[in-house]
Design a protein that fits this description.
Structural class: alpha/beta
Number of strands: 13
Strand order of the largest sheet: 4-3-5-13-6
CATH topology of the largest domain: D-Maltodextrin-Binding Protein, domain 2
Shape: rod-shaped
Helix content: 40-55%
Radius of gyration: 31 Å
Distance between the termini: 46 Å
CATH class of the largest domain: Alpha Beta
Order of helices and strands: HHHEEHEHHEHEEEEEHEHEEEHH
Number of helices: 11
Largest sheet: 5 strands, mixed
Strand content: 15-25%
Number of domains: 3
């Protein structure tokens, strides 16, 4: 039994006329009659009472009509679901991000994404750059927001946000005696203990911070390592040291921690978006488009992304 046979049967049952049903379906009447007869033989029952003047449903026909409507509606819903998943408009999207991404552009990007694609569920994971690259390689995440310039084999990297580093200091630190907008000389932190993250987890971001300190004439004394920005800022608030963090991290409101601009101004490692070069997930392409549009970067549609990725 094929879906088209059920579709033919429903048309005849609705119209109670082979002629009108054939016109509705856009086919000739003899093939329609043959297909209905074939369905009856396959089911082993008579579905229609036929006479020269009328067509009616048998008891078996009435029972089949309800089931046929349900099956046809479900088949159409299945077609729509598959089509939406293929177009990246349904399903799930696995998103990885460094902690500072949650304090910056990722939050607004996800809000717009959820509004635009309400049937796609974002599954969001916090992880540093190195674990993100491994997750992309093994296809356990679909898109990554990380501070790492690349290039990396098998991945496309798209710059998203450039921002400066700011100093995170505890209460009663001498830097807090000046105006919050007055830059703190980076060299003033030369004798401080630093709280950073393990270099192995985000080597580019780590090297950017250490390089800024060396440009200012010192190498930071890293005494504590934190797994993410929230823990890092909390350790600063506890008075265990100072740190340099991307400006977006200053959106973290941790009691006892304060932020100050530094001079000379230092660029944080660029926040970038990474996707697999081959067969990226459609919802990931939609999120990339939204994130770059909100960041004021050149944008493209998912179809445009695929075209530019095609070999010449």
């Amino acid at each position: 039994m094929e879906l088209r046979h059920l579709r033919y049967f429903v048309a005849v049952a609705d119209e109670l006329s082979f002629t009108r049903a054939a016109q509705r379906l856009g086919i000739a009447q003899p093939p329609l009659s043959q297909q209905i007869a074939r369905l009856e033989r396959e089911l082993g029952v008579q579905l229609l009472e036929r006479s020269s003047r009328s067509v009616g449903l048998t008891q078996a026909g009435r029972a089949l009509l309800d089931e046929a409507r349900t099956l046809l509606a479900r088949s159409e819903e299945t077609r729509r679901i598959v089509s939406r998943v293929s177009a990246g408009e349904s399903g799930a999207l696995r998103v990885a991000s460094v902690a500072s991404g949650f304090s910056g552009p990722l939050v607004e990007s996800l809000r717009v994404f959820r509004t635009t694609y309400p049937d796609v569920l974002p599954l969001v994971y916090e992880m540093e750059a190195t674990p993100q690259l491994e997750a992309l390689e093994h296809r356990t995440v679909d898109i990554a927001f990380l501070r790492s310039p690349g290039p990396y084999s098998g991945l496309d990297m798209w710059p998203l946000a450039d921002e400066t580093l700011v100093a995170a200091v505890p209460e009663r630190h001498p830097a807090l005696t000046s105006s919050p907008t007055t830059p703190l000389p980076l060299s003033a932190l030369a004798s401080e203990r630093f709280v950073l993250f393990p270099r192995a987890s985000a080597p580019d971001a780590f090297d950017t911070i250490v390089g800024a300190c060396r440009t200012a004439g010192f190498t930071p004394d890293v005494v504590y390592e934190a797994p993410n920005d929230h823990v890092l800022v909390s350790l600063v608030a506890a008075g265990l040291g100072v740190s340099l963090v991307p400006h977006s991290t200053s959106n973290l409101n941790v009691p006892g921690a304060h932020y100050r601009p530094v001079t000379p101004a230092c660029q944080a490692a660029t926040l970038a978006v990474a996707l697999p070069r081959v067969s990226p997930a459609e919802p990931a392409l939609h999120l990339l488009e939204i994130a770059r549009r909100l960041a004021g970067r050149p944008i493209f549609t998912a179809a445009g992304y695929r075209r530019q990725a095609e070999p010449e």
